[in-house]
Amino acid sequence: MKIRKQKTALVTGGAGFIGSHLCRRLLEREYYVICLDNYFTGRRENVRDLVGNPNFELLRHDVVEPLHIEVDRIYHLACPASPPHYQYNPIKTLKTSIMGTHNMLGLARRIRARIFQASTSEVYGDPEVHPQPESYNGNVSVNGIRSCYDEGKRAAETLCYDYHRIHGVEIRVARIFNTYGPNMDPADGRVVSNFIVQALRGEDLTIYGDGSQTRSFCYVSDLVTGILDLTDLDDFTGPLNIGNDGEFTVRELAELVIRLTGSKSKLVQRPLPEDDPTRRKPDLSLARQKINYRAAVPLEQGLKDTIAYFRDVLLPE
Ligand code: NAD
Ligand code: UDP
Question: Is 75 tagged catalytic?
Answer without folding.
Answer: no
